[in-house]
Amino acid sequence: MTDRPLAPDECTLEALKASWSADTTVLAPEAPEALRAAELEFVLTRWSEPQRRYHTVQHLAEVLSAVGELAAAGEVDTVGARLARLAGWYHDVAYDPRAEAGSNEHRSAALARDHLNSLGVARGTVDVVEALVLMTVDHDAAGGPALLASRRHTVSVLHDADLWILSSPADRYRQYAEQVRSEYAHVPDELFRQGRSAVLSGFAGREVLYRTAHARTHWEPAARANLATELDRLRG
C-alpha cells in the first residue's frame, strides 16, 4: 500500500491547468486572471491533502479524462461537458475518510457554490454544478432535483466518469483498491471488508452499471470483472 499520496507528474498538472483555464475563461469571463489562478491553486491544494490516497489529483485527472472520452463519443454536448468537468473539479474537493457518509459530498457542494459565486459564475451554472456534486453521494443519476432534468446527459457523463475507475486496467484497479484501503487504514480489517464488500456489491448488483451507451459498451465488461475479482478477494 502507498503511505502517501502520489505526486502528479508535470504533464498531468499542465493538462489540468490548461483544462481549468479553458473552462473558467468561458464560465467566469469577468473574473480577474489572478482570482482564477488563486482558485486553481486552492482546488489543487485540496486534492493534494495528506489524508488522501485515492481521492487525489490522480483521480481528478482520470475523471476529467473520462469526461473527455465520453464527450468525444458524442454522449454530451460542449456545454454539458464543460459543466461535468467543472463539477469534477469540485466533487471531492472536501475529503475526510473519517467523515460521516455524505458529509464530504455536501461540504464539497457547499464549497463549489461559495467559490464559483466568488468567481462570478452564472447562478444557473452554479446551481447545476452543486446538484451534480450532490449526485455523487449515492451515484443515483436517475434522481436529483428538477433543475437537472434538462441536463440528463451531463448527469450521466459525470456519473460514469466518476466510476470509470471500476473499469480501469487490472493493475490500475488493484492500485486503486490498495489506495482505498490505505485511506481507511483506521478501520479494522474485518469492518473494512464488510463495508467495502457492501459498497461493491451494490454496484455489482445494478442491472446497468453505467448510464451512457459508450461506457456500457466499452467500460462495463471490465468493470464487472474487476468488481467480481475484488469481491472474491475480500470474501477470502
Structural class designation: mainly alpha
- Quickly count the helices: 11
Amount of helix:
55-70%
What would CATH call the homologous superfamily of the domain at 10-166? Hypothetical protein af1432
Largest sheet, described in full? none
Unreliable spans are none
C-alpha termini separation: 19 Å
What would your notes on this structure say?
It is a single chain. The radius of gyration is 17 Å and the shape is globular. It is mainly α. The protein has a domain at 10-166: Hypothetical protein af1432. It has helices spanning 10-27, 33-47, 57-72, 78-90, 103-119, 123-135, 152-162, 170-183, 189-204, 213-218, 220-234. It is 65% helix and 0% strand.
Fill in the keyword field for this structure.
mainly alpha; Hypothetical protein af1432; 0% strand; 236 residues
Brief overview, please?
This protein is mostly helical and 236 residues long. The protein has helices at 10-27, 33-47, 57-72, 78-90, 103-119, 123-135, 152-162, 170-183, 189-204, 213-218, 220-234.
List the helices and strands and how they pair.
Blueprint: H1 10-27, H2 33-47, H3 57-72, H4 78-90, H5 103-119, H6 123-135, H7 152-162, H8 170-183, H9 189-204, H10 213-218, H11 220-234
